[in-house]
Hints:
Layout (H helix, E strand, L loop, with lengths): L2 E5 L7 H14 L6 E6 L2 H7 L5 E5 L17 H13 L3 E4 L12 H13 L4 E6 L6 H12 L3 E4 L2 H8 L10 E2 L12 H10 L9 E4 L12 H19 L3 E3 L12 H10 L6 E3 L7 H9 L3 E4 L2 H8 L5 E5 L2 H11 L5 H4 E3 H6 L3 H6 L3 H31 L1
Parallel strand pairs: 1-2, 1-4, 2-3, 4-5, 5-6, 6-7, 8-9, 8-11, 9-10, 11-12, 12-13
Helix pairs in contact: 4-5, 8-9, 10-11, 11-12
Amino acid sequence: MPNILLTGITSCESRGVEALARSLATSLTAAPDTTVTVLTQTPDLDSEALAGSGADCTADPFVVSRSWATMRPVETEQHRRERASRLVKQADLVLATGGDLHTSDYGVSTSYLAVLDRAQKLGIPTAMVGQSVGFTDPAEQAAFTVTAQRLDLLTVRESTTWAYLTGPLALPEDRVVLAADPAFLLQPSSPDRTAQLLADAGLDATQEYVCLAPSRGVTRYSPISDAQHLDALTRLADTLWRVRCRPLVLVPHCHDSREHNDDRLLARQIAARLPNVPVHVLDADGTGAGDYKAVLGGAELVVSERLHASIGALSSGTPAVALGHSPKFHGVLADTYGPDVPPGDVHRDIAAFTADPGAAEHLAHLDTEKLRDHLATRLPTQAALATADIARVRALLNS
Length: 399
């Protein structure tokens, strides 16, 4: 029975992480007798979040985050090392996802290489799929390059990363495959479930709506303050209502146990500032990635500070605009929309957006029907690229 060890997962408290893990696990375990073991910081929570995907979850013995320490089982250092060795030896393939872990944004890239390095020393196949990569730290870049050169498969989710890996990092062009984010394959929740979620948030099922997906953590990676950020998003929400005359659904894509990264808190702050605007916060406990994809996919327009909230909309054919803090946003949005849509229309740097008082007006007046029609011509390609990654992983597992 082939076993895939899935690394690069932090916690499904982030619905973007859940979208990655669920999409891969569901697709890969569809093959007969294939098992997927997910290394994570929150194994009990993720076992519940990934129920039905075919994935088993265990505490990551290679990366131990102090901020999630209370959500992991207590174990001695010797037990952790023994468990790490056993997990790798039982694997037929070590597969790394994680989106943008291998950047200098978070300072964790090198730690997440450890399991791949261990597997490579034992001759176990290794792969990375759906990556966005970019470093400002030379030591992180050097460590990544060494591991990447030994991978059996390396795919990236946007052309900006492909150019970086084959350019500055000098990896051979035939060893780096341009694909798409695995979350393009995520299945949305049923229409009945979606209607109930919207009703519970106070929205009539017949109403058209606009979604805003805020990120409480974005200020940690940009020069703006929390107060400036809240002011900008409040102005944006008010402008969207005034221009588009649609109720707003706030989608907190990260239900983090760590306050600094909990989008629910920011969504509630925005709503409290707009007592005269129909704002509905979709933050019920148990709301998963598939639920959010269904809600985002039903919107007229999505403005998101979380990349996977954007992908949830885009993969449903719904126009999405990203307010980002790193090249991954530009890369994914530009590749999805293609060269005929100006990047400035669908992606803004969050610091520049905050500083520009006219930026909210521009986003609110976007021609969503034109964007929707354009997406319809592009989505089959993105879905095919993501599906091809699954085929590559299966071929590697069976080789």
